[in-house]
Amino acid sequence: MRLGIDIGGTFTDVVLQDDEGFLRSWKTPSTPPDFQRGVFDGIELAADALDISARELLGRVDEFLHATTVTTNVVLTRAGSRVALLTTRGFGDLYQLARMYRNQERDPAKVTHPTPLVPRDDVIEVLERVDYQGREIVALEEEEVRRAVSTAIAEGIDSFAVCFLWSFRNPAHEERAKQVILELAPDAFVATSVEAAPVIGEYERMSTTVITAFAGPELRRYSGKLLDGLRERGFHGQLLLMKSDGGLGNIEGTVASAGQTIYSGPVAGAMASRTLGEERGERNLITFDMGGTSTDVALIEDGEMRITSLQFLDRQALATTMVDVTTVGAGGGSLATVAPDGSLRVGPKSAGARPGPACYGNGGTQPTVTDANLVLGLLDPDYFLGGEMKLDRDAGERAITELAGRLGLDPIAAAAGVFRIVNATMADAVRLRTVFAGLDPREFSLVSFGGAGGLHCAAVARELGIRRVVVPGFASVFSASGLISTDISYSANRSTRRRLGPGGTVEHDELAQLRELFATLDSQVESSLAAHEQGIERTDLRRSLEVAYGGQILNFEVELQAEGPLEQRDLVLAVADFDSRYAATYGTGAAAPQAGYDVKTCRVIGIGRVPRPEAHGSLIGGGNGNGGGGTGGADPIGTRAALADDRATELTEVPVYRASDLRPGPAVSGPALIEYADSTILVPSRAAAMIDAARNLTIEVYS
Q1: Are residue 626 and residue 664 in the same domain, yes or no?
Q2: Residue 614: how many CB atoms within 10 A of its CB?
């Protein structure tokens, strides 16, 4: 059995795949700050639905697959460990100087530096120097390292980040500094830049190393407590954590690269979308994951997930291989407020899991997107989570009425305004991933999942000109289901500087050095994969290069076709791919192949394919899981006054369907509401929906 659990800001999602491949799902409220309690609540909920004990359930589970927000929350709340940063003498101010991250701000007076995770007083300069070719210029002064580390330990510091200049060319000084630290403090957490981010760009490399040292100890504590709790409850299998590069890893390897878990949950949903696209024969997809706190958007182009090597979290640079995800503060719990100029704002602040939206009845009084959807008739207060949770209509209406009074509007108009604004915010996130990258969103299908996405996906698609929306049959727990279909993977990369001539020609010595570098990276990922407790069916290695035109800084990552040693023809194909992508992004005629090419980074992703039973498409009923398809007709269960689409100004009677009553074939014309046990889908006016045999809902949106 495989058990996947994804912790969100509002709900914790549970998906179980049994030995025959059948899937079941459940949802339970998240329990911040003690998130593992929500995990155990979810296990108890699943066990009760299966009419067995939690111990019996966990005793049957071979792999416990987990997507966690621990690292993200630690960085955002500044709740990490106190870190001592060791760096090359003379460069102690580098981390504080940082980069000017504008985040689309046009007024220079409003642009500020990110607040560092390590204060200047905890930055330690030590004598050492390696040059850009990796040659030792000044030996590491080990006694200086010992004195500095001893002082830091005496001050209560137990986490260290080590980042020396040009260490990715020659890691000897960082490796020795780590040994010295562990000799003095064997239980200390030590992150070196050559392990966290062996890439050029001293600030980005240092920032990534600091994030790892800042969040790593908490991730180690959390995963250790979780594993201990699972063992006490009868679990004897393997605990794997979801990483931002799109694969699962064991605790030891994942904790050591804690920065790799920043987008753990969102990436699981993106990987599930790619699997869904493969099953449906759709190669261009935009993933749209709207949960209670935020919305995450990723891109699958021509069947391949868009990958990046640089992201920002709270303006902290993170230079590591990861699925390219854009996150905006727009979710079901996003707060609706009135700005000083009297305009309506939605997000990015959220009511979270506690107290949650006003209609949750947990003491919240501020209006949220969920409260607006309730007032607009889009949610049935008696059928939330399939009736497992009742919504307080009066509390939701009071919150929206108070907001409406401040805006000078009636409650329906205010709620409709919240609905439209949050849709516009999410549409902008999609534009950032597509239009700003030279892609036309109209050439993609939108895959909508997350508990809140079904009510908003068609409106977002219409605003972007997207004609097709796919809502998986288990959309509310789609990220958790993505864990079930995800393989084990590790990535390794290293900056280099190799010049290719026009057409990808390369000198024999340069080619030999690239081969040697790839052999080193191959060995790294194969060693990580070999460390897993359970057998891996087979291993696939994917090699790629980050390439720019000679003398330019605009680079793209291109995949190499080579399965064996790198050959000249592999580089020829790679630069041809680069030329095509460059022209598609910057316009016809922008490519400059005559300038030659600079290879900036080599990367290897190793994927360990794990044997598992073939998954059956639909989640079968159980607990508050989704029901299987009915065989009856598609008659509505009734109607209710609701917003027919985002352009409507008043409520109209809209037919309501149970998803379990729908059968493949006949279309449901909008406006209509389709209720699953754990989510509701709005099929707006000028749209039609059809369910398939796997219980996926396809909405065709007309302009």
Answers
A1: yes
A2: 6
